[in-house]
Specification:
Blueprint: H1 5-14, H2 30-40, E1 52-57, H3 60-79, H4 89-105, E2 111-118, H5 127-134, H6 138-150, E3 153-155, H7 165-172, E4 178-180, E5 184-188
Antiparallel strand pairs: 1-2, 2-4, 2-5, 3-5
Helix pairs in contact: 2-6, 3-4, 3-7
Length: about 210
């Protein structure tokens, strides 16, 4: 199989965290979410454990309840401001403004996807165990986000609802042995003309053979 490298590179370099450009008025069919999840679960997991689990929320009342839980943690954090160096102040303010908009409008996003993993790391768990658990879900999350982008949808990986994880679990009937790791608001995007983000040259952050 020969991949179309320019198209593949464009997908990988332009899949952004989408907030303000989510279309709040366009419904997202369940079959599209399932199609993207089918691709997501092709991602590798630690020891091929396949411990990812997914909770999709499209019920309006539950989205509102989750949004209210999200705002409990998000608004104090965001209103406190994001720390940034002087050269990054403008970009940080844009991110903060976008994140505040999402918090204030979260329930209007058509679909929430909550990636979960079976099991929880015990208190004081060694890094090997923690890395294996999160490494068994986040590759699938990224694959899901790429699949969305390829179909004209966007998402943003958020974690602030985890400050109220127990309340969210009670609302959604999530058992104790299932750990939520994020909440992704999902919707079609207003336009698809996303561009690569400004990043530091990899030559300055890459080390060969020793630090």
């Amino acid at each position: 199989m020969q991949f179309d490298l320019p198209m593949t590179d464009a997908l990988l370099s332009t899949t952004r965290a989408v907030r303000k450009r989510l279309d709040l008025d366009r419904a997202v069919p369940r079959e599209v979410i399932l199609e993207c999840l089918e691709l997501a679960v092709q991602a590798p997991t630690a020891s091929n454990s396949q411990t990812w689990r997914w909770l999709v929320v499209d019920d309006a009342d539950k989205r509102l309840a989750l949004a209210e839980l999200y705002r409990k943690g998000a608004l104090p954090y965001l209103n406190a401001g994001l720390k940034a160096s002087a050269e990054n102040a403008e970009q940080s303010e844009r991110v903060r403004d976008s994140a505040l908009w999402l918090a204030e409008n979260l329930e209007k996003v058509p679909v929430f996807v909550i990636p979960c993993v079976e099991g929880r790391p015990p208190e004081g768990a060694p890094p090997l165990l923690v890395a294996g658990m999160y490494g068994s879900i986040f590759p699938a999350v990224w694959s899901f986000q790429l699949a969305l982008r390829a179909r004209g949808l966007g998402s943003a990986l958020t974690t602030l609802h985890l400050l109220q994880e127990k309340d969210a679990a009670e609302l959604l009937g999530i058992p104790d042995h299932i750990m939520q790791v994020a909440l992704l608001p999902v919707g079609y995007t207003k336009g698809t003309d996303f561009k690569p983000a400004k990043r530091p040259p990899v030559s300055g952050i890459t080390h060969w053979n020793s630090w």
